Amino acid sequence: MNRESLKHAHWLVVKIGSSLITNNGLGLDRPAIESWADQLVTLQRQGRKLVLVSSGAVAEGVARLDLKARPRAVHMQQAAAAVGQMGLIQAYESCFARHGVHTAQILLSHEDLSNRKRYLNARSTLTTLLEMSVVPVVNENDTVATAELCFGDNDTLAALVANLVNADLMIILTDQHGLYSADPRTNSEATLIPQASADDQSLQAMAGASSSLGRGGMLTKLSAARLAARSGTSTLIASGREDNVLGRILEGEALGTLLTPDRERVAARKQWLAGQLRVEGHLELDAGAVEVLRNSGRSLLAVGIRSCQGRFERGDVVVCVDQGGTEVARGLVNYSSVEIDKIKGLASNRIEDLLGYAGESAIIHRDNMVLTG
User: For 318, which DSSP code?
Assistant: First the structure.
């Protein structure tokens, strides 16, 4: 991906840092939040799908509780997050509501996205919201997190969300103009790096420290860019204080630092899936289903399944084989083995009647499948 191709980015994850949201710790910066909401609505009306990952709950809680600094004790951080999350989500809701756009609060921990079943549940919820033109506002679930709260950061969470929705581009808005060759706050000769590979190890030495309000500095942003690149997502780090920064980025203007993956998006995502594949069961497919998977790039439906072997749950990895036992594909399954035994060979519109609830139409979605034979 280059600057010109940013014009065609369709699936976006936008992350806004604490120092921007809370006006350097002086409470929520309402005019800034309104500006970002205006920009995001404009992008949405262009037909783009976008997820907002927002820091600021703990920092806003610190301001509301009139604390002198971010507390060090975990239970105090959790209390501040609980108080601050109220103000944060209220601000976003009111700013988007001015445009008639609904928002949804999504609180996640890194554990939610490392567990395959919860990964599928989160993905299903987010994609449904995006199809309904709702803007999901994602934050880390700080009130229940422990190790994540102390060592995690929303840059990493944004990268995991980018993987979740198969994003084209992750935009990290911060209080810096991008990645510099040295810390511009202490080195007047530092120069902005306009573009680099996300996996360029020489970038590590150029990253500075984090602010006192958030947990992530430029180093975590580089780490997040590498994580996003594993799924083929490009990352752009830019200043959130630039006028109409999101619109200008997506017009191809040379703002910030663009960090690109070394391989194409689809191939990279399949590689990520391949790394998740500890097999829990097998699905034997009929000839029609095998043909569809190999040549049409479509999802696997129940009607194409002849038999099911093994015991597995939603989110487990299963192997798809043809009638001769040759492996065709592997992927994350949307139903348990017990459920598939009930619906195999049948049309998707019969799933609700047979199971008593309406689940996914696909047994394995094409985005969660890798062809292996």
Answer: E
Residue 270 lies in a domain: no
Measured distance CA(245)–CA(341) in Å, rounded = 51
Q: Same structural domain for residues 151 and 14?
A: yes
- How many structural domains does the chain have? 2
If asked whether residues 92 and 181 sit together in one domain, one would say: yes
Indicate the residue type of 162: A
d(CA 315, CA 334): 6
Q: What's 361's domain CATH number?
A: 2.30.130.10
**End-of-domain residue from the set 217, 243, 265:** 265
Q: What is the pLDDT of residues 85-135, one digit of tens each?
A: 999 999 999 999 999 999 999 998 767 776 778 888 898 999 999 999 999
Closest CA to 136 of 114, 110, 107, 100: 107
Number of H helices, E strands in the chain: 14, 13
Question: Which amino acid appears at position 183 of this protein?
Answer: D
The structure tokens listed for 256 are 């910030």
One DSSP character per residue, 130-192 reads HHTT-EEEEEE-TTT-SHHHHH--HHHHHHHHHHHTT-SEEEEEESSSS-BSS-TTT-TT--B
Last residue in a domain, options 238, 265, 292: 265
- Helix H or strand E segment including 340: helix 337-343
Q: SS3 for 14?
A: strand
- Is 155 in contact with 170 (CB distance < 8 Å)? no
* Secondary structure (3-state) at 336: coil
Q: For 364, which DSSP code?
A: B
pTM of the model: 0.79
Q: What angle do CA 278, 282, 283 make, to 5 degrees?
A: 135
- Based on the domain organization, do 186 and 75 belong to the same domain? yes
Across 11-100, where does the E strand assignment appear?
A: 11-16, 49-54
Residues 227 and 125 in one domain: yes
For residue 296, the enclosing domain spans: 276-371
